[in-house]
């Protein structure tokens, strides 16, 4: 679509340099069409102005809604409609905010600067609201669909709304130094599974994290320092992209067996009351013979038979999701022997912050056994290593 007309392109910065525009248009061709954006590899609608001096033309990307209104008015004018019925406004100079670049970053670090009556710019990609004494997440923030980074550190937030999971572009969530007591299952099962890479929950009041936390499989950096965590998520090893983990100054006494599967660059577990592991100290949760339900569940897990709530009861599905791996490699569900063994944390991380003031880098890790024979074999091997 092309229109031959006189066009004047004015740089609004000219008065800043003491210059004036010519105030005279140049014969040009105004076109509306598609153009391939090399950065996104997508075709977008652009306005292009070509003059005798610039035959290649200058391209201007326009907002789709504005283009629709523009074309609608042009169509009505082309049909010879009465000008009084056309949806046209009187030509006036635009406001500065109409031609400014969309605001992508906003930082509010004082309560007096917090907007009470106006909305946040919808174009925001990074938003920081700190030291504002917020007790809850403002719902206006949750309408920012382009948001990639949300920093709500140093507030008084006690609970996170599940609708944070509707922020489909969110890759970084910082909640340092709040009053959080839980991280909900709903957030773990939201779109954050596909987008969240950096999560800072340090200096809160967390005691546990849900089993579904390990569904956040895009996590690269996780900060859990200075909480009251009694344990880490059972299947933490499923966070295969995790590279930075800090959980210093919590109440961890032992690490989950799945911890062995992590492949980290930096690990900090300083200041936790880890137990001194002793393979002879164990918890036995076995019956002889094993119940039929346990045998069937083990068969499903070991043979990797597909299952779901449409095939078996929901509580069995939950049990299978927290299945334990035995020393021999087989799966056990609800009946097992459990002990703790020492592991050098350098096995899972390139850099390790010392675990205690004594300079140690070892920590206790849970070990499960599916049978008495597996536990006996493990003890024999441990004794043989100790006598060498």
UniProtKB/TrEMBL annotation:
Domain PIF1/LRR1 pleckstrin homology: 1-64
Stored InterPro entries: Leu-rich_rpt (IPR001611), Leu-rich_rpt_typical-subtyp (IPR003591), LRR_dom_sf (IPR032675), LRR_domain-containing (IPR050216), PIF1/LRR1_PH (IPR057437)
Keywords per UniProt: Leucine-rich repeat, Nucleus, Repeat
SMART domains in UniProt: LRR_BAC (SM00364), LRR_TYP (SM00369)
UniProt cross-references to Pfam families, sorted A to Z: LRR_1 (PF00560), LRR_8 (PF13855), PH_LRR1 (PF25344)
GO CC aspect terms: cytoplasm
PANTHER family to which the protein is assigned, alphabetical: LEUCINE-RICH REPEAT PROTEIN 1, PTHR48051
Protein name as it appears in the record: PIF1/LRR1 pleckstrin homology domain-containing protein
């Amino acid at each position: 679509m092309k229109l031959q007309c006189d066009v004047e392109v004015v740089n609004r910065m000219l008065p800043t340099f003491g210059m004036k525009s010519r105030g005279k248009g140049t014969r040009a061709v105004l076109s509306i069409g598609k153009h391939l954006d090399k950065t996104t590899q997508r075709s977008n609608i652009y306005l292009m102005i070509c003059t005798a001096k610039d035959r290649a033309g200058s391209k201007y990307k326009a907002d789709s809604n504005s283009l629709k209104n523009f074309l609608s008015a042009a169509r009505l004018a082309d049909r010879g409609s009465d000008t009084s019925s056309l949806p046209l406004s009187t030509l006036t100079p635009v406001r500065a905010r109409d031609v400014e670049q969309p605001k992508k970053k906003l930082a509010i670090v004082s309560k007096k600067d917090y907007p009470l009556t106006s909305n946040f710019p919808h174009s925001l990609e990074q938003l920081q609201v700190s030291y504002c004494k917020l007790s809850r997440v403002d719902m206006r923030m949750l309408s920012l669909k382009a948001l990639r980074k949300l920093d709500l550190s140093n507030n008084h937030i006690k609970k996170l709304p599940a609708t944070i999971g509707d922020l489909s572009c969110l890759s970084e969530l910082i909640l340092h130094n709040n009053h959080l007591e839980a991280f909900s299952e709903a957030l773990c099962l939201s779109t954050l599974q596909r987008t969240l890479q950096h999560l800072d929950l340090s200096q809160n009041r967390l005691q546990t994290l849900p089993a579904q936390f390990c569904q956040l499989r895009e996590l690269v950096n996780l900060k859990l320092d200075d909480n009251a965590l009694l344990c880490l998520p059972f299947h933490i090893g499923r966070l295969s992209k995790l590279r930075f983990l800090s959980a210093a100054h919590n109440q961890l006494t032992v690490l989950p067996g799945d911890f062995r599967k992590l492949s980290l660059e930096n690990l900090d577990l300083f200041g936790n009351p880890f137990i001194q592991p002793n393979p002879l100290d164990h918890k036995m949760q076995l019956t002889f013979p094993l119940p039929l339900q346990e045998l069937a569940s083990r068969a499903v897990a070991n043979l990797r038979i597909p299952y779901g709530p449409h095939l078996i009861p929901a509580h069995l599905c939950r049990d299978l999701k927290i299945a334990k791996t035995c020393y021999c490699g087989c799966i056990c569900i609800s009946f097992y022997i459990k002990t703790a063994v020492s592991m050098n944390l350098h096995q899972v991380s390139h850099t390790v912050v010392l675990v205690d003031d004594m300079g140690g880098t070892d920590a206790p890790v849970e070990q499960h056994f599916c049978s008495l024979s597996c536990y006996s074999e493990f003890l024999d091997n441990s004794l043989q290593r100790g006598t060498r």
